[in-house]
Amino acid sequence: MQYKNPRIKPIYPLYRIDSNTFRIGAQVGTTKEFNDPTHQLWELAKLLNGQDIEKVFNKERKKFPDVQMSDQYILDGIDLLNKEGFIEELLPQTECSINERYAPNIKYFSHFIDASGDRFKPQKIINQSKILLLGLGGGGSNILTLLAGLGPQKITIIDYDVVEEENLGRQFLYREDDIGKNKTEVAKKAIQAINSNIEIEAHNIKITNAHDIESYVKEVDIVICAVDEPQFLITRIVNQAIVRGNKPCVFAGSQVSHGRVFTIIPGVTGCFDCLNIHYSITDSGFLNQFRALAKSDFQASSIAYGPAIFQLTSTIVDEVVRVLTSYLNPLTLSTQFEVDYTNSTSFKHPAWPRYEERCPTCGNGKEDEWDVFKYYPLFNH
Predict the structure, then answer these.
(1) For site-directed labelling of 254, which of 17, 90, 306, 374 has its Cα 20 to 30 A away?
(2) What does the domain layout of the chain look like in residue ranges?
Protein backbone atom coordinates (compact mmCIF):
# COMPACT_ATOMS: atom_id res chain seq x y z
CA MET A 1 0.00 0.00 0.00
CA GLN A 2 1.00 3.66 -0.28
CA TYR A 3 2.25 5.36 2.88
CA LYS A 4 2.51 9.11 3.42
CA ASN A 5 3.13 9.71 7.11
CA PRO A 6 3.18 6.27 8.74
CA ARG A 7 3.69 5.82 12.46
CA ILE A 8 3.63 3.11 15.06
CA LYS A 9 0.24 3.43 16.73
CA PRO A 10 0.77 5.52 19.87
CA ILE A 11 -1.38 3.09 21.85
CA TYR A 12 1.47 0.53 21.75
CA PRO A 13 4.87 0.72 23.45
CA LEU A 14 7.98 0.04 21.38
CA TYR A 15 10.85 -1.41 23.43
CA ARG A 16 13.91 -3.65 23.28
CA ILE A 17 14.11 -6.98 25.08
CA ASP A 18 17.81 -7.66 24.35
CA SER A 19 20.37 -6.90 21.67
CA ASN A 20 18.60 -9.16 19.16
CA THR A 21 14.94 -8.72 20.05
CA PHE A 22 12.36 -5.96 20.36
CA ARG A 23 8.66 -5.85 21.06
CA ILE A 24 5.64 -3.78 20.12
CA GLY A 25 2.71 -3.90 22.52
CA ALA A 26 2.34 -5.11 26.09
CA GLN A 27 -1.04 -6.88 26.08
CA VAL A 28 -1.83 -10.57 25.77
CA GLY A 29 -2.96 -11.26 22.22
CA THR A 30 -1.55 -8.00 20.87
CA THR A 31 2.15 -8.02 21.71
CA LYS A 32 4.51 -9.08 18.93
CA GLU A 33 8.16 -9.95 19.40
CA PHE A 34 10.60 -9.37 16.53
CA ASN A 35 13.93 -11.15 16.16
CA ASP A 36 16.11 -8.43 14.62
CA PRO A 37 19.87 -9.01 15.07
CA THR A 38 20.74 -6.41 12.38
CA HIS A 39 18.63 -3.73 14.11
CA GLN A 40 17.29 -2.63 10.72
CA LEU A 41 13.64 -3.19 11.63
CA TRP A 42 14.17 -1.68 15.08
CA GLU A 43 15.61 1.53 13.67
CA LEU A 44 12.89 1.66 11.05
CA ALA A 45 10.20 1.28 13.72
CA LYS A 46 11.71 4.18 15.68
CA LEU A 47 11.58 6.34 12.56
CA LEU A 48 7.88 5.66 12.07
CA ASN A 49 6.59 8.61 14.07
CA GLY A 50 4.38 10.26 11.45
CA GLN A 51 7.13 12.00 9.47
CA ASP A 52 7.09 12.05 5.68
CA ILE A 53 7.84 8.67 4.08
CA GLU A 54 10.69 10.13 2.02
CA LYS A 55 12.40 11.25 5.21
CA VAL A 56 11.98 7.74 6.58
CA PHE A 57 13.67 6.32 3.48
CA ASN A 58 16.61 8.72 3.72
CA LYS A 59 17.15 8.34 7.47
CA GLU A 60 16.97 4.56 7.37
CA ARG A 61 19.61 4.46 4.62
CA LYS A 62 21.89 6.77 6.61
CA LYS A 63 21.60 4.45 9.59
CA PHE A 64 22.93 1.57 7.47
CA PRO A 65 25.25 3.04 4.81
CA ASP A 66 26.79 -0.34 4.02
CA VAL A 67 23.44 -1.94 3.15
CA GLN A 68 21.79 -1.52 -0.22
CA MET A 69 18.26 -0.41 0.67
CA SER A 70 15.72 0.31 -2.04
CA ASP A 71 12.48 2.10 -1.26
CA GLN A 72 10.69 -1.22 -1.68
CA TYR A 73 13.03 -2.92 0.77
CA ILE A 74 12.09 -0.39 3.44
CA LEU A 75 8.42 -0.52 2.47
CA ASP A 76 8.50 -4.28 2.97
CA GLY A 77 9.51 -3.64 6.57
CA ILE A 78 6.66 -1.19 7.07
CA ASP A 79 4.25 -3.65 5.43
CA LEU A 80 5.38 -6.30 7.91
CA LEU A 81 4.57 -4.01 10.85
CA ASN A 82 1.28 -2.98 9.25
CA LYS A 83 0.29 -6.62 8.72
CA GLU A 84 0.70 -7.10 12.45
CA GLY A 85 -1.66 -4.16 13.05
CA PHE A 86 0.89 -1.67 14.40
CA ILE A 87 0.86 1.04 11.72
CA GLU A 88 -1.45 4.00 11.13
CA GLU A 89 -1.22 7.22 9.13
CA LEU A 90 -0.75 10.52 10.93
CA LEU A 91 -3.60 12.79 9.86
CA PRO A 92 -3.02 16.11 11.68
CA GLN A 93 -6.00 17.98 10.21
CA THR A 94 -8.39 15.21 11.16
CA GLU A 95 -6.84 14.91 14.62
CA CYS A 96 -7.46 18.60 15.22
CA SER A 97 -11.09 18.46 14.08
CA ILE A 98 -12.15 15.78 16.58
CA ASN A 99 -13.81 16.75 19.84
CA GLU A 100 -11.26 15.95 22.53
CA ARG A 101 -13.81 14.03 24.60
CA TYR A 102 -13.97 11.36 21.89
CA ALA A 103 -10.20 10.98 21.39
CA PRO A 104 -9.97 7.91 23.67
CA ASN A 105 -12.72 6.23 21.64
CA ILE A 106 -10.72 6.82 18.46
CA LYS A 107 -7.61 5.35 20.05
CA TYR A 108 -9.62 2.26 20.92
CA PHE A 109 -10.97 1.93 17.36
CA SER A 110 -7.45 2.37 15.99
CA HIS A 111 -6.52 -1.02 17.44
CA PHE A 112 -8.84 -2.70 14.93
CA ILE A 113 -7.96 -0.62 11.84
CA ASP A 114 -4.74 -0.81 9.81
CA ALA A 115 -2.98 1.95 7.89
CA SER A 116 -5.28 1.59 4.89
CA GLY A 117 -8.39 2.25 7.00
CA ASP A 118 -9.85 5.32 8.68
CA ARG A 119 -9.62 5.08 12.45
CA PHE A 120 -11.75 8.23 12.75
CA LYS A 121 -14.65 6.80 10.76
CA PRO A 122 -16.38 4.83 13.56
CA GLN A 123 -16.54 7.90 15.79
CA LYS A 124 -17.73 10.09 12.92
CA ILE A 125 -20.53 7.63 12.21
CA ILE A 126 -21.52 7.62 15.88
CA ASN A 127 -21.51 11.42 16.02
CA GLN A 128 -23.84 11.54 13.00
CA SER A 129 -26.18 8.79 14.18
CA LYS A 130 -29.72 9.04 15.52
CA ILE A 131 -30.80 6.44 18.05
CA LEU A 132 -34.18 5.49 19.49
CA LEU A 133 -34.01 4.07 23.00
CA LEU A 134 -37.13 2.34 24.29
CA GLY A 135 -37.22 1.97 28.05
CA LEU A 136 -35.38 3.81 30.81
CA GLY A 137 -35.31 1.16 33.51
CA GLY A 138 -32.33 -0.83 34.79
CA GLY A 139 -31.11 -1.51 31.28
CA GLY A 140 -32.24 1.60 29.43
CA SER A 141 -31.05 4.19 31.96
CA ASN A 142 -27.54 2.76 31.98
CA ILE A 143 -27.55 2.29 28.20
CA LEU A 144 -28.40 5.97 27.91
CA THR A 145 -25.44 6.95 30.07
CA LEU A 146 -23.07 4.91 27.89
CA LEU A 147 -24.55 6.46 24.75
CA ALA A 148 -23.96 9.92 26.20
CA GLY A 149 -20.26 9.13 26.39
CA LEU A 150 -20.19 7.98 22.77
CA GLY A 151 -21.89 11.13 21.51
CA PRO A 152 -24.53 10.33 18.89
CA GLN A 153 -26.14 13.30 17.17
CA LYS A 154 -29.56 12.60 18.62
CA ILE A 155 -31.18 10.20 21.07
CA THR A 156 -34.94 9.82 21.24
CA ILE A 157 -36.05 8.29 24.55
CA ILE A 158 -39.43 6.73 25.28
CA ASP A 159 -40.77 5.55 28.62
CA TYR A 160 -43.93 6.09 30.68
CA ASP A 161 -42.76 5.30 34.21
CA VAL A 162 -41.75 7.47 37.15
CA VAL A 163 -38.63 7.15 39.30
CA GLU A 164 -39.23 4.95 42.34
CA GLU A 165 -37.01 4.30 45.34
CA GLU A 166 -36.41 0.69 44.31
CA ASN A 167 -34.91 1.94 41.03
CA LEU A 168 -31.99 3.66 42.73
CA GLY A 169 -29.98 0.52 43.40
CA ARG A 170 -29.34 -0.05 39.71
CA GLN A 171 -30.61 2.93 37.69
CA PHE A 172 -27.75 5.31 38.37
CA LEU A 173 -29.04 8.08 36.14
CA TYR A 174 -31.57 8.99 38.84
CA ARG A 175 -31.20 10.58 42.28
CA GLU A 176 -33.26 10.54 45.47
CA ASP A 177 -34.69 13.94 44.61
CA ASP A 178 -36.04 12.47 41.35
CA ILE A 179 -38.44 10.04 43.05
CA GLY A 180 -41.92 10.57 41.65
CA LYS A 181 -40.75 12.39 38.53
CA ASN A 182 -41.15 11.08 34.98
CA LYS A 183 -38.09 9.11 33.95
CA THR A 184 -38.05 10.78 30.53
CA GLU A 185 -37.93 14.23 32.14
CA VAL A 186 -35.12 13.32 34.54
CA ALA A 187 -33.14 11.40 31.93
CA LYS A 188 -33.26 14.21 29.39
CA LYS A 189 -31.97 16.75 31.90
CA ALA A 190 -29.24 14.40 33.15
CA ILE A 191 -27.92 13.56 29.68
CA GLN A 192 -27.92 17.20 28.62
CA ALA A 193 -25.67 17.87 31.63
CA ILE A 194 -23.37 14.98 30.68
CA ASN A 195 -23.05 15.82 26.98
CA SER A 196 -24.61 19.04 25.70
CA ASN A 197 -23.64 18.10 22.12
CA ILE A 198 -26.42 15.51 21.97
CA GLU A 199 -29.96 16.41 21.03
CA ILE A 200 -32.35 14.62 23.39
CA GLU A 201 -35.98 14.15 22.43
CA ALA A 202 -38.15 12.67 25.19
CA HIS A 203 -41.63 11.16 24.96
CA ASN A 204 -43.69 9.94 27.90
CA ILE A 205 -45.50 7.08 26.14
CA LYS A 206 -46.64 3.62 27.15
CA ILE A 207 -46.10 1.36 24.16
CA THR A 208 -49.18 -0.77 23.55
CA ASN A 209 -48.88 -1.47 19.82
CA ALA A 210 -46.49 -0.96 16.92
CA HIS A 211 -48.25 2.21 15.77
CA ASP A 212 -47.23 3.96 19.01
CA ILE A 213 -43.59 4.09 17.92
CA GLU A 214 -43.59 3.71 14.13
CA SER A 215 -43.11 7.44 13.48
CA TYR A 216 -40.11 7.55 15.81
CA VAL A 217 -38.55 4.44 14.28
CA LYS A 218 -38.58 6.05 10.83
CA GLU A 219 -36.52 9.02 12.05
CA VAL A 220 -33.52 7.10 13.43
CA ASP A 221 -30.65 4.91 12.29
CA ILE A 222 -31.04 2.20 14.91
CA VAL A 223 -33.38 1.22 17.74
CA ILE A 224 -32.54 -0.21 21.15
CA CYS A 225 -35.33 -2.11 22.87
CA ALA A 226 -34.81 -2.22 26.64
CA VAL A 227 -38.49 -2.49 27.55
CA ASP A 228 -39.40 -5.57 29.59
CA GLU A 229 -43.17 -5.24 30.04
CA PRO A 230 -45.43 -6.82 29.05
CA GLN A 231 -43.08 -9.79 28.98
CA PHE A 232 -42.49 -11.24 25.49
CA LEU A 233 -45.39 -9.28 24.02
CA ILE A 234 -43.46 -6.00 24.00
CA THR A 235 -40.66 -7.63 22.01
CA ARG A 236 -43.15 -8.72 19.38
CA ILE A 237 -44.68 -5.23 19.25
CA VAL A 238 -41.30 -3.54 18.76
CA ASN A 239 -40.31 -6.18 16.22
CA GLN A 240 -43.35 -5.28 14.11
CA ALA A 241 -42.47 -1.58 14.30
CA ILE A 242 -38.84 -1.97 13.27
CA VAL A 243 -39.72 -4.32 10.42
CA ARG A 244 -42.29 -1.84 9.10
CA GLY A 245 -39.81 1.00 9.52
CA ASN A 246 -36.95 -1.05 8.05
CA LYS A 247 -34.54 -0.12 10.86
CA PRO A 248 -32.15 -2.39 12.78
CA CYS A 249 -32.86 -3.02 16.43
CA VAL A 250 -30.80 -4.41 19.29
CA PHE A 251 -33.11 -6.18 21.75
CA ALA A 252 -32.12 -6.95 25.32
CA GLY A 253 -33.59 -8.44 28.42
CA SER A 254 -32.52 -9.63 31.84
CA GLN A 255 -33.86 -12.50 33.90
CA VAL A 256 -32.37 -13.63 37.22
CA SER A 257 -28.70 -14.38 36.65
CA HIS A 258 -28.53 -14.11 32.85
CA GLY A 259 -29.08 -11.41 30.27
CA ARG A 260 -29.77 -11.86 26.59
CA VAL A 261 -29.09 -9.71 23.52
CA PHE A 262 -30.10 -10.22 19.91
CA THR A 263 -30.14 -7.99 16.84
CA ILE A 264 -32.58 -7.87 13.97
CA ILE A 265 -31.87 -6.15 10.67
CA PRO A 266 -35.07 -6.21 8.57
CA GLY A 267 -34.62 -7.91 5.22
CA VAL A 268 -31.23 -9.27 6.26
CA THR A 269 -31.77 -11.38 9.38
CA GLY A 270 -34.71 -13.31 10.70
CA CYS A 271 -37.06 -11.22 12.83
CA PHE A 272 -38.49 -12.07 16.24
CA ASP A 273 -41.51 -13.78 14.71
CA CYS A 274 -39.10 -15.84 12.62
CA LEU A 275 -37.57 -16.98 15.92
CA ASN A 276 -41.01 -18.07 17.14
CA ILE A 277 -41.53 -19.98 13.92
CA HIS A 278 -38.06 -21.50 14.16
CA TYR A 279 -38.71 -22.83 17.65
CA SER A 280 -42.14 -24.07 16.59
CA ILE A 281 -40.52 -26.07 13.80
CA THR A 282 -37.35 -27.29 15.47
CA ASP A 283 -38.28 -27.77 19.14
CA SER A 284 -41.09 -30.25 19.82
CA GLY A 285 -41.52 -29.01 23.39
CA PHE A 286 -41.51 -25.29 22.68
CA LEU A 287 -45.20 -24.68 22.08
CA ASN A 288 -46.36 -26.59 25.18
CA GLN A 289 -43.84 -24.76 27.37
CA PHE A 290 -44.74 -21.36 25.95
CA ARG A 291 -48.48 -22.01 26.28
CA ALA A 292 -48.04 -23.11 29.90
CA LEU A 293 -46.03 -20.00 30.77
CA ALA A 294 -48.54 -17.72 29.06
CA LYS A 295 -51.43 -19.28 30.99
CA SER A 296 -49.57 -19.25 34.32
CA ASP A 297 -50.39 -15.59 34.91
CA PHE A 298 -46.85 -15.16 36.23
CA GLN A 299 -45.85 -11.55 36.65
CA ALA A 300 -42.11 -11.06 37.00
CA SER A 301 -40.97 -8.76 39.77
CA SER A 302 -37.95 -6.51 39.49
CA ILE A 303 -34.83 -8.63 39.83
CA ALA A 304 -31.75 -6.58 39.15
CA TYR A 305 -28.25 -6.38 40.57
CA GLY A 306 -26.29 -3.32 39.48
CA PRO A 307 -22.95 -5.00 38.60
CA ALA A 308 -24.82 -7.64 36.60
CA ILE A 309 -26.83 -5.05 34.70
CA PHE A 310 -23.58 -3.30 33.76
CA GLN A 311 -22.33 -6.50 32.15
CA LEU A 312 -25.44 -6.61 30.00
CA THR A 313 -25.68 -2.92 29.08
CA SER A 314 -22.04 -2.69 27.99
CA THR A 315 -22.66 -5.63 25.66
CA ILE A 316 -25.75 -3.94 24.25
CA VAL A 317 -24.09 -0.59 23.53
CA ASP A 318 -21.02 -2.17 21.96
CA GLU A 319 -23.32 -4.20 19.72
CA VAL A 320 -25.09 -0.99 18.67
CA VAL A 321 -21.72 0.50 17.74
CA ARG A 322 -20.75 -2.61 15.80
CA VAL A 323 -23.98 -2.52 13.80
CA LEU A 324 -23.62 1.20 13.07
CA THR A 325 -19.90 1.33 12.28
CA SER A 326 -18.74 -2.21 11.40
CA TYR A 327 -15.55 -1.59 13.37
CA LEU A 328 -16.02 -5.25 14.30
CA ASN A 329 -18.60 -7.76 13.14
CA PRO A 330 -21.78 -7.79 15.27
CA LEU A 331 -22.08 -10.75 17.64
CA THR A 332 -25.86 -11.03 17.81
CA LEU A 333 -27.36 -10.98 14.31
CA SER A 334 -30.30 -13.43 14.42
CA THR A 335 -28.49 -14.96 17.37
CA GLN A 336 -29.35 -14.82 21.05
CA PHE A 337 -26.20 -13.82 22.89
CA GLU A 338 -26.41 -15.00 26.49
CA VAL A 339 -24.54 -13.15 29.25
CA ASP A 340 -23.98 -15.17 32.43
CA TYR A 341 -23.62 -12.65 35.26
CA THR A 342 -22.38 -15.12 37.85
CA ASN A 343 -19.43 -16.39 35.83
CA SER A 344 -18.83 -13.24 33.76
CA THR A 345 -19.03 -15.38 30.65
CA SER A 346 -21.14 -15.43 27.52
CA PHE A 347 -22.21 -17.79 24.77
CA LYS A 348 -24.32 -17.82 21.63
CA HIS A 349 -27.49 -19.77 21.07
CA PRO A 350 -27.88 -21.29 17.58
CA ALA A 351 -28.79 -18.70 14.97
CA TRP A 352 -32.22 -18.71 13.36
CA PRO A 353 -32.97 -18.02 9.67
CA ARG A 354 -35.38 -15.65 8.04
CA TYR A 355 -38.61 -17.43 7.07
CA GLU A 356 -39.53 -15.12 4.24
CA GLU A 357 -42.34 -17.31 2.90
CA ARG A 358 -43.75 -18.23 6.33
CA CYS A 359 -43.31 -15.25 8.64
CA PRO A 360 -46.35 -12.96 9.01
CA THR A 361 -44.22 -9.95 9.95
CA CYS A 362 -41.13 -9.86 7.74
CA GLY A 363 -42.38 -12.21 5.07
CA ASN A 364 -45.44 -13.46 3.26
CA GLY A 365 -46.87 -15.85 5.87
CA LYS A 366 -50.09 -15.67 7.87
CA GLU A 367 -50.23 -15.28 11.62
CA ASP A 368 -53.07 -17.79 12.12
CA GLU A 369 -50.90 -20.54 10.65
CA TRP A 370 -48.81 -20.57 13.84
CA ASP A 371 -50.34 -21.47 17.21
CA VAL A 372 -47.61 -19.71 19.18
CA PHE A 373 -48.91 -16.25 18.30
CA LYS A 374 -52.29 -17.00 19.90
CA TYR A 375 -50.72 -16.93 23.35
CA TYR A 376 -48.91 -13.61 23.24
CA PRO A 377 -51.96 -11.54 24.30
CA LEU A 378 -52.03 -13.52 27.56
CA PHE A 379 -48.86 -11.73 28.67
CA ASN A 380 -50.67 -8.39 28.61
CA HIS A 381 -51.55 -8.45 32.31
Answers:
(1) 374
(2) 6-119, 124-379
